[in-house]
Design goal:
single chain, alpha/beta, about 35% helix
Length: about 260
């Protein structure tokens, strides 16, 4: 409701420190868009293989512990559950690319080829993640600072989103300074490598989780916040989430009302 969904032509940045769950949340968006809205989505993973990405999607879809999926350690009932989810997912309009060394230009060329095919469309593009993208050999940005290089990449994604009329979600890392701040809540200045990311993006979101060590006898704190820090065409705000790490899945926190029992 806060963003009214991802709008065509928008560049959306989802940023967090490593291990917080940005890939999990992005895959949740991809899966939900395909399941609920029959949206055609493409996921470019520069860090994980296709098999790893599919395993995460399968765990989230089937609600089966990701470690069980990876190890193949499950009984007949869970196996049947996974097979049903696998068959359902194979029918979804999701494309996964795991080419590690790839540029914005190459991603744009793949999108062009896809759209040029008869009756093909693309409704959502997700890239994981910004700092791993390559710059073309011999390009001006490849020879300059990392901030200039990242700025050129973010500009390329904004042009891709605008020219093709699709929302482009790009994952990004944050600077380490956020770890030393009181409360550890990210802000726009924490975007790693370049202020151009903030300038090009239509929406900037952060995932915030309290990563304190769990003492013996304590339960893991699964609460999380999705912070909408920039929204070019609407309000900013915070969406409370609940992180189910074993299923590589986030869900929106259930909000209590005055009539709910304490």
């Amino acid at each position: 409701a806060l963003t009214q969904g991802f709008q065509p032509g928008n560049l959306i940045i989802l940023a967090a420190r490593p291990g917080i769950g940005k890939t999990a949340l992005a895959l949740n968006w991809l899966l939900r868009a395909a399941e609920k809205h029959q949206a055609h989505g493409a996921f470019f993973s520069l860090e994980m293989s296709k098999e790893e990405v599919f395993g995460r999607l399968l765990s989230a879809h089937a609600t089966v512990n990701m470690k069980q999926v990876q190890a193949g350690a499950f009984d007949d009932q869970v196996q049947a559950q996974l097979l049903r989810s696998r068959d359902a997912m194979l029918g979804l309009p999701i494309f996964i690319n795991d080419q590690a060394a790839i540029t914005v230009r190459e991603i744009t060329a793949m999108v062009d080829r896809h759209l040029s095919q008869t009756n093909q469309r693309l409704d959502l593009l997700i890239v994981d993640y910004l700092q791993l993208l390559s710059s073309p050999e011999g390009s001006r940005a490849a020879k300059q600072s990392e901030a200039v290089r990242i700025g050129e990449i973010s500009r390329g994604f904004k042009l891709l989103a605008k020219d093709h009329g699709i929302p482009v979600v790009v994952l990004s890392q944050l600077n380490r300074e956020v770890e030393h701040r009181q409360g550890g809540r990210p802000q726009l200045s924490d975007l790693r490598d370049s202020g151009a990311i903030e300038q090009d993006a239509d929406i900037v979101m952060f995932i915030h989780r309290r990563m304190k060590p769990v003492m013996e006898g304590e339960e893991d704190d699964r609460s999380a916040e999705l912070l909408v820090a920039k929204h070019r065409n609407g309000p900013t705000g915070m969406i409370p989430l609940y992180f189910e790490g074993e299923f590589a899945r986030f869900r929106e926190m259930e909000r209590a009302t005055d009539s709910d029992p304490v």
